[in-house]
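Hi there. Long-time user, first ticket. I'm pasting a complex I've been working with (about 559 residues overall). I'd like to know whether the download I got is complete or cut off, because the file seemed smaller than I expected. Thanks.
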Amino acid sequence: MNTQTLKKPDIHISKGQTVTGKWHKKSYHVVKELGSGAIGTVYLCVYQNVQVALKVSKQSHSITSEVNVLKAFKKVQGHSLGPSLIDTDDYIAPNGYVYSFYVMEYISGDDLPDFINRNGQEWLITLLIGFAKDLQALHDQGYVFGDLKTDNLIVSRRPAKLKWVDVGGTTLQGRAIKEYTEFYDRAYWQMGTRKADPGYDLFALAMVVLRIFYPDGFSKGNNPRKTLNQKIQLAIRSESLKKLLIKMINGEMNEAIEVKDYLLEDVMKQTHHTHVRQKRLVPDKQTETSYHPFLEVFSILSVSGLCYMYVTLFL
Amino acid sequence: MRTGTLKQILLITDGCSNQGENPASVATIIAEQGITVNVIGIMEDEQTEQPTGLLEVEEIASCGRGVSQIVYKQALSQTVQTVTKQAMNETLQGVVNKELQQILGSPRTMEELPPEQRGEVMEVVDELGETCDLEVLVLVDTSASMANKLPTVQEALIDLSISMNARIGRSRFSIYQFPGRKKPIQQLVDWTGKLDSITSIFSKLASGGVTPTGPALKEAMHQFGKKSLKRRLFHNEYPDVEEA
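Hi, the file is complete. Here it is re-exported in full:
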């Protein structure tokens, strides 16, 4: 618990309240709190019957910084980098203080570990491929995400895609990382600096993957490098994923696109193998060996096809 | 835009002062010298309410035009950085606001601008924060009750230097403890850029129940003066004012 003793008190908005902007006069009806962090609190709101996310903070400059980042992303939309910005304004609270806020698109979905545990680990690779591509686009814009962690990610539904929801840590490349969380921080693990470069995000991404297998995290011990290696060896079954994570934490990958290429190549190899193996298998064993959604669909179709033929021929 | 080297004193303590001048009034004088005074108050793990002794923390920081925060020791690392960065940001915003006043005539601060225009001003503040030089004098209360918190303090300071050194601008730190043996404060680490290599600096503890926060702050203020004088004499290539 932190008790900030600045002049301006923290802001608490309860559900049912309405937040009206000082400048643009738009009103947002607060539904519930979505989460709060070091910088501010995010609320789920309704504006003209549409669900939106509203982030409010007592630190006006942080809100302005984040708005700057979201605006920069807007310029490269089409390839949507993060939630789109809807409004930015000031809220005059009943206590008389002015709090800055911004409103962005609300992305609903699941927490990454929950999603993987429910839908199976093969999804991890699929999600990572898409995410690495987005990360590359962000890096190409000259930014580094910074505070990449499980809490800042969401798996959106239809299509299932890993997306980031909080851009508070986004930093221009070459500068000092604005915000970070120890467990995901390269410098905390003594594996490099806290300067914003693409490798910083890739390190954090590897830790996001590890966090799925260690929901409570783990301490760094006397030899952080050794600890990380051990934890990877223990948790990850796939040899190729193990190799990739080790490369990512050791800074041997400099670009997100390398991660995507590595994973894609690996998937192609695996599909090829399964394909070859599958030819020799009896049809009803297919369901057990398929590791790919496509194969799953294929096997279900073939089984139901057989059933249909059985029904039409013998009954 | 010009900003001098930003100067900060970071006071880390767990109780209220009980000897010498009033620390809040000393902090006012220090702030007048262009040095910000930030204060972090550490609570015991079992404390649930803010102890009265720590009320002073807020007062010192507001007189010293700095930032204050009260935390449990586990949150110290993160807090030391938040406080340092926030104080930097506020000082720089002060500089930028002054500039805005000159350009726009009437007294204006960033908050009074419409949100659309704040973005560009913020970029200037961010840029200054990244490139300005920073000097932090860390003043650690090493009275008996602090003993079990000192290893955490040291870790937090090392982490602070890692963060600040990732910036483009130059950062320098020095660490003092108080009370000293015979003087109000005792130097532990002289001005240096990197704290990564420091080991068990708090080994020599001063015992006794006195906490002379006021005199310690006053003495700390003079450490900036001494250093800049020396620097002017010997290192002319490192000017006090930086072009940003």
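A couple of notes from our side: The two ends of chain B are 6 Å apart (CA to CA). Residues 2-235 of chain B form a domain with the Rossmann fold fold (CATH 3.40.50.410).
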